[in-house]
Structures are given as structure tokens and as C-alpha cells.
Amino acid sequence: MAKPKLVQGTLELLILQTLLFGPLHGHGIAKHIQRTSEDVLQVEHGSLYPALNRLEKSGCITSKWELTERGREMRMYRLTAKGRKQ
Description:
Blueprint: H1 10-19, E1 24-25, H2 26-36, H3 45-57, E2 61-67, E3 73-79, H4 81-85
Antiparallel strand pairs: 1-3, 2-3
Helix pairs in contact: 1-2
């Protein structure tokens, strides 16, 4: 069965909706979208990170490197006021 194709802009909206629940790293965002779509949507890293970059450039999200409890550095993404409004 063919994988469904996302309409331009749909991935960005899914990312913004995911970040309403709080900050997440890229892999966490992809897993949340997959889980909430009951495995129908699987976001490839090659699509996710360019979308995150576009959202950051547009001012809808911000990101920064943070240290996790396990001592690992991860880039965490957060919604901005503009992104919440979007």
C-alpha cells in the first residue's frame, strides 16, 4: 500500500499542533505524529528537519540545545506566540 503524501504545509501544522503540548526534540515530534495518526503518517527525517527550519525562520518556533537528565544534548523545539496563533 502506498504511503499517503502530505499536502505542502500539512507537516508544519502537525508540528505546531504537536508542540502545543510542550517542547520536544525532533525525534519526539516525529513519534508523536506517528502515534497520534495510528501509524498512518510516518515523518521522515528528510522532511521533518527542513520543516522545522522553515518554522523557525518564520518565527513560529524556537529551538535550543539542552542537556537531558541522562546527560545527552538534544535540540528542543518550542512554540512561540506567533506559532500558537498560527
